[in-house]
Design goal:
Order of helices and strands: HHHHHHHHHH
Strand content: under 5%
Number of domains: 2
Largest sheet: none
Helix content: over 70%
């Protein structure tokens, strides 16, 4: 009798252990579990990358596409509303005109620098070394500005000239992070060069992942700007009755001197 009872007890213990293991497995696949959140993030980045590539195809829409890409990337970093398709096209539509102008200006600058490079190295003419260094420095600063100009356009409302100017200033103030952002965008190219087997990964995540990682870097700086700007605009917002949805891009990103000085000291 005692051996029979002991056997039942052991069986009951084993059943309970299996049930606990089953519950633990179910917890892993719970929508709020870290694993599922990670998988959802990966899926969102994949779809965001596909949307960006499709909307870049007409070439002239690259500016609006990159603005929408950074708009959604920052939202994902901040764990805000992440309905990717809806948010992407909302930003695409709202920023289309100004983003297109910015993109065409950036493209013109790129073509001019590319022409200068071609003339210097393939025309057979001799150019002073100082001129080559100057053109190289301008090209580097242009890359830095492009890295920030579409995130700035996505988050702040301003004129084209001030948006470009502020993007340039931010890239210098955030110099260490700017270098990291350059590395992020070079990673897909490196993967492509390492092995052709990695091309699908570079193709499916080559824009969204660098944009997401970049947003993680500039998020703190943007947040500080937004907080300072909102403090000075709260009364005006209440007076004219702007709704929460309309308020997403009301920020005027005119960098005040105290913020610039503070960031030059800390370079965070």
């Amino acid at each position: 009798m005692s051996s029979w009872a002991a056997g039942l007890t052991m069986m009951w213990i084993r059943i309970n252990q299996r049930n606990k293991k089953g519950k633990n497995v179910m917890k892993i696949f719970n929508l709020d579990s870290p694993l599922m959140q990670l998988l959802n993030k990966v899926a969102d980045l994949l779809w965001l990358n596909i949307l960006t590539l499709i909307c870049c195809l007409p070439i002239v829409t690259i500016g609006a596409s990159f603005t929408a890409l950074h708009y959604m990337s920052l939202k994902m970093v901040r764990n805000e509303d992440t309905y990717v398709t809806r948010g992407f096209f909302k930003s695409f539509k709202e920023n289309f005109k100004q983003s297109t102008i910015i993109w065409l200006l950036m493209l013109l600058a790129i073509l001019i620098l590319a022409g200068d490079y071609y003339i210097m190295y393939y025309s057979g003419m001799e150019f002073h070394q100082a001129l080559k260094i100057i053109i190289l420095a301008v090209a580097v600063l242009l890359v830095f500005t492009i890295l920030y100009v579409f995130p700035v356009q996505a988050r702040f409302e301003n004129k084209v000239t001030r948006t470009i100017k502020n993007a340039f200033i931010m890239s210098i103030l955030q110099f260490p992070k700017t270098i990291l952002m350059v590395i992020f965008y070079l990673l897909p190219v490196i993967l492509f060069l390492i092995s052709t087997d990695l091309i699908p990964i570079a193709f499916l995540f080559g824009l969204s992942v660098p944009a997401f990682l970049s947003a993680m870097l500039y998020n703190k700086f943007f947040k500080k700007l937004e907080d300072n700007i909102i403090e000075g605009q709260e009364e005006n917002i209440d007076e004219i009755g702007i709704t929460e949805e309309e308020d997403e891009r009301i920020f005027k990103d005119e960098l005040d001197e105290s913020l610039i000085v503070d960031n030059e000291k800390r370079m965070f």
